[in-house]
Design brief:
The chain has 599 residues and is α/β, with parallel strands linked by helices. Helices cover 41% and strands 19% of the residues. The protein has helices at 21-43, 98-110, 174-189, 213-223, 247-255, 286-307, 316-358, 360-364, 455-462, 465-470, 486-531, 538-554, 557-567, 571-585, and strands at residues 45-49, 54-58, 61-64, 71-76, 84-92, 118-121, 146-151, 158-164, 196-197, 199-205, 234-239, 262-263, 267-268, 270-272, 313-314, 370-382, 393-396, 401-404, 420-421, 424-425, 437-440, 442-454. The strands form seven sheets. It has an eight-stranded mixed sheet, sandwiched between helices. Helix 3 (174-189) packs across helix 7, helix 11 runs antiparallel to helix 12 (538-554) and helix 12 (538-554) crosses helix 14 (571-585). The protein is elongated, with a radius of gyration of 33 Å. The chain starts with 20 loop residues before the first helix and ends in a 14-residue tail after the last helix. Mean pLDDT is 77; it is low at 1-19, 23-33, 126-141, 465-486 and 587-599.
Amino acid sequence: MDSQAGLELGPELELDEALKPELKLELEITSQVASLTVRDLIQKSQLISEGKPARYRLLTTRSNLDEKGKVRKWTFGQRDINSQNKIILLVGETGTGKTTQINGIVNYTLGVKFDDDVWFEITEEGGVNQTEPETADQTVTQTTEVTVYEVFVQENQISVTIIDTPGYGDTRGAEYDEQVAENLFKLFKQDTGVKEIDVVCLVVKATENRLADRQHYIFDAILSLFGKDIEENIVAFVTHSDGGPPTNAINAIKKAKIPCRKKNGTDPVYFLFNNRQAEQRTTGYEEVFQNAWKLTENSLKNFIASLECENRKSLAKTERVLLENIRLKACVSNLQERIELKERKREELTQTQEALKQNQEKIQRNENFSFKVTRSHKEKVSIGNASRWDRKATCCSVCKENCHEYDCWCAINPAWCEVMKDGRCTVCSGKCHYSKHIRENKKYVPKSEEIIMTYTDLIKQYENTDESKAGISLDSEKFEDVKKNLEINTKLKKEKKRIEDRLKEELSETEIEKAQLVEQACATIMVLSEIALKPDSAFIVESLDFLIPRAEEAGDHNWVQKLKELRKIEPEAETTADSVQRYFRAGFKKVTGVFSGKK
């Protein structure tokens, strides 16, 4: 091992035989300290593979921050109250080298040098027998757990907390990405979770020269998680870099209008990294690997230094964005089902009105008659053919509605469901108490059937107490002599008018209720747009496209104007929304499960 390890020298300083004795002694002492540190780390690790570098997995203390182990904390070392802890959140597409990046930050924090010929890993990507990190097809190996890595070094003034989100863009579908958002929400919500953050690192490849539909979706999904106040805390980690300017990746970020910290007001702040630190150092290529290590080490040095100048941000607003996202999706899903039922009810009432119109003469002759009508109702059925994330739903037993149907997987009982606020549901019609809700593998679905109805049935359906006592009926045997029953005929005419009036009232009530539902969703989306980092996310755009025509139908010009103003987005955002929809049409589930027609 070279005696120069552990001492950072400027590029203008070259070591030779003329070095002063004091400097040589300092180098020797530094090398000895570094060696002792590495040997101590090896004692606290498990060998993964021998070689150059030898790979070790750090032995960590592990705990779960939620009851199902979907949010985990792995800790190495003992916390020192005197050290500065930097909280770093890494997000990025599957396959960008995020795992190596996490381990790179860990090795830098531990003080590992190139000449130590070791590489420590805190992650378990691929298992302990994996010999070639990040070479497998990671688009099909990702999990949805959010893992918090804590690394504390007694001799170091800086410790790190790294929040690892599984790679976005998993080929199994967007529902897996939904679970990442859910798990982050739990992490921020838990008392023992993370409440503040220093930086959000968006990991991208240096070779990325344009954003395909998948990349548009990934950026949109990631940035939709945060509040507006996080923008200045977002930086780019450019991986697989050769050290040159990452022109392609940065232009792609700029073109996509990714909100992040900028220098000179225009260029995204970024840090370059090479991902070859853990590779076996092939003979003849030592300089290549050393340069790769130096690039990453220098970038991390600058990155950590930049955090000292930035303000740590509370995650309260981001937590609220995540919660409002969940509630809005549940609200729009519930709204769509309720509107559908209202429209079916309107169709039934219209059919009934048409039957009365066509049978005027029979009504005047006091004849009973029958007609067809399509009647709708709700029926609770078992949830089938759903992903494991959608196999349970929170439903209101009073309103008979699905309050949280899609991605309702993490709550132990209805009281813990995200749609509950202050003990009451934010979604169902009656805003009922959580105790009136049931969480099980069943949900309500609308059912329609064509039935044959008689005018007598219709009268009974709308009869009031007084008329019921009067015994009004259309039995032909009781009305043989129309002239002798003029009084009853008069009552029947009144009954017909009352039914028609009641039908009109029900139609009016249906439209009023529908308008109220639309207003409720509009208010929710306005709140989300005000606090979200990305108010032009694909989900918000889709929600607006769903709500605007319904607000127009309701005649609420105030809401229509507000929603249309919100819908005025830049061409880049429109491109992103279109790309996300194309991504789903190619075979992936829609983000909300609402607009895809999934029932």
